[in-house]
Amino acid sequence: MTHSTDNKSQKDIVSIASTSAKTLAAAVTAAGLVETLQGNGPFTVFAPTDAAFSAIQSDVNTLLKPENKAKLVNILTYHVVPGKAMAADLKDGQELTTVQGGKLKVSIKDKKVMINGAHVISADVHASNGVVHVIDKVILPKA
Predict the structure, then answer these.
(1) Between vectors from CA 72 to CA 68 and to CA 76, what angle results, nearest 5°?
(2) Which of 29, 47, 79, 106 has the fewest C-beta atoms lying within 10 Å of its C-beta?
(3) Number of structural domains the chain divides into
(4) Contact 81, 100 (CB under 8 A)
(5) Is the per-residue pLDDT at 3 higher than 80?
(6) Which residues have C-beta within 8 Å of that of residue 29, sequence separation ≥ 6?
């Protein structure tokens, strides 16, 4: 893997996902959201790990089909919140409104942060256009 020697600020959200959450990056591409998530933002993205996607692999395979693009967009935008919410900004019981329109519930217990039941396993990954928090589950909007 080659790294750019150009140190122009930081990588954007999509670049970060491409190296650390390949399934998410592939899903973002299939959903046509690359340009959006490379935009100015700022965005807060709750990014499921590749292992989180593997846990629902058959669903992922179905969602990546072109005919399911709208459903994929719905799920992915449920992981994105407008603005830049750093871990220190999150409060127990807080609700975050997603780009999709649904709400994510923040719960904090014993300094462990959860978003709709998914554990934040790596917080505050800075991006040039926001912040990424890595989570251990794919969170699904209520139908």
Answers:
(1) 175
(2) 29
(3) 1
(4) no
(5) no
(6) none
Would residue 7 count as lying in a domain? no
- Residue 4: inside a domain, yes or no? no
**3-state class of 105 per DSSP?**
strand
Cβ neighbours, 10 Å, residue 46:
23
Contact, 78 vs 141, CB < 8 A? yes
> In CATH, what number is assigned to the domain containing residue 107?
2.30.180.10
> Please, what is the average pLDDT of the chain?
90
Express each pLDDT in 23-43 by its tens digit. 999 999 999 999 999 999 999
The whole-angstrom separation of Cα 55 and Cα 43 is: 26
Give whichever of 6-10, 14-18, 19-23, 97-101 has the largest mean pLDDT.
Answer: 97-101
CB atoms closer than 10 angstroms to residue 33: 19
The one-letter amino acid code at 99 reads V
